[in-house]
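Appendix B, example 12.
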Amino acid sequence: MNNYRGITKEEIKQLIQQGCQSDDWDKLYIKPTTDLLKIESVTFSGENYIGHIEGTRTFYGGIIKQNSIKNVHLHNCKIGDNAFINNVKSYIANYNIGDNVMIDNVDIIAVDGECSFGNGVTVDVINEGGGRDILIFNQLSAQIAYLLALYRHKTVLIDELKRMIEEYTLSVTSSVGHIGDDVKILNANTIKGVCIGDGAYINSASKLINGSINSTKESQVYIGTDVMATNFIISSDSKVDNSSILTNCFIGQGCLIDKHYSIEHSIFFANSQGFNGEACSIFAGPYTVTHHKSTLLIAGLFSFMNAGSGSNQSNHMYKLGPIHQGIMERGAKTTSDSYVLWPSKIGPFTLVMGRHYQHVDSSDFPFSYLIEGNNKSYLIPGANLKSVGTVRDAQKWPKRDNRSKNNRLDIINFNLLSPYTIHKVSKGLRHLYDILDLSGDKLDEYNYKDMVVKKSSLHNGIKMYNIVINKFLGNSIISRVENKNINTVQELREVLKPTSTIGQGKWIDVCGLLCPISALNLFVDKVEKLEVKTVEDAINELNEINNHYYEYEWNWAVELIESFYKIKIEEITTENFINIVSNWKKAVVDLDKMLYKDASKEFDLHSYVGFGADGEEKEKLADFKNVRGAFESNSTVLEILSHIDRKEKLGDKIIAQIKEIKG
């Protein structure tokens, strides 16, 4: 190799005097500037390369030590510049080690034969009994995983995606491991067949076998105390700590796995968190969060999900094994001690409370409550639209994106109201009207797909769904004309014309990517026709779909505008437009007032219980205000009031703009 040379007889003698030994000194190579005084008590076997050694390290407590290589057996290793390697009990074998690496007090770091470092490992997601297995690899995104797991009926697609992954796996397969620049490995036990990226910090890990730690200089990975991981990939910006156990799993970017969390045959994508509990055969899409010791997530698909303490599901009926599965669509939440019997399908942004022993399907009723009562599952359609918590969630997710801005694997669309959710809202609205038409308005309760809908809930659901449709369509049409110079009705109609038919029809959530199913089907066709040949091609194609989101959104919105308001876009009048904006303004204000009222519940008299522990009412009020603050100055409350003001002004501005248009 360039810049390396063999060692001289004098240098061999010096190394022997410093306690070193080798079975063949002719296979040891150093740089001209390598300081042999920094190499002590080292056993060399195979072919080894040692870089330049200078500088110091500062350890915990302010202890400073010179960079050096001591008390280690090196076998077939290339070591970069300025290494600190000390006290490796067994050996380091078959590794290329970067610059400025620190390895101290480790049992063993080795690769034995050909290794793919976690790439190509089979993970049985969603269905514990198999059938939805995917192959994990370094570039796995939530979208590719979604297709692999849920599009099994597209056999050519699955075969092609697996071929791409197998080709990628072959490209990273090697008999030599990699430890990148600036890596720290301290007080670890067993590391076998692990590829470690730049800047990774492994501190007191117990066992790491057959995996990749995809740390980068800008997006570092931390592996902490007593972590055990086998057949794994951990992506950039992630942290795994405190006795967590990983077996056959993929951890995406910006994830946090901590506090004894146990994962088996599962995949976690961007910004997900797992503490204390257990995951088995789950597909945890972006922002899946579970923090409680008594919580089990099993055999399901989740995303933007918060699991309450004691939440669990059953995938086993004690007949043919653990073959059942469930889906909680984006934004679903479970309260403490919730239970859902799989198979079930929970709609987007639905709050699940209590224990549900029926196979419920609320997928056409987003923003709802699903509550247990009298051993029944009661559906309250649209109730979550009035919850300030729903809005708070939508606002916090983008702020809690822990991923570095470069090289993000998962496509994430954070929009709360989108063609995906509003398409379901419109379907749910039709179902509610159909229930009324079929059963009349005299019943107190209605049955629908193993759920019960109370009469009051049905009418409130119709009201809430109409409000949110008006809000979404107003948002869309205003964004289409805002800041545009429109002088005539014909120009208005031109601006509002759809750009194509792509976007019309059904929309889906491809685990973070919101898109029309027609656009995804075009991608699938390209893969099946071999027009998409590599992993990189697939990633680029999916990103291209995401880049056209707002264009496709408008194409879809036009369809709903025409059916909901009974008008044609090519014939729209200024009066039609003003009516849509007026309906939007009323919907926004009405919803915000509901949110304001909901937020006020956190400051009512019941909230004062437990404050002012040793005082009377005066002290209770004072204690509450000092801890929680005043309702009027709460940041969320102020934002609601500000939002009402901003949107009213925007509506007035747009209406004034349209009134200036000539017929």
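Residues 455-481 form the longest helix (27 residues). Residues 1-110 form one domain.
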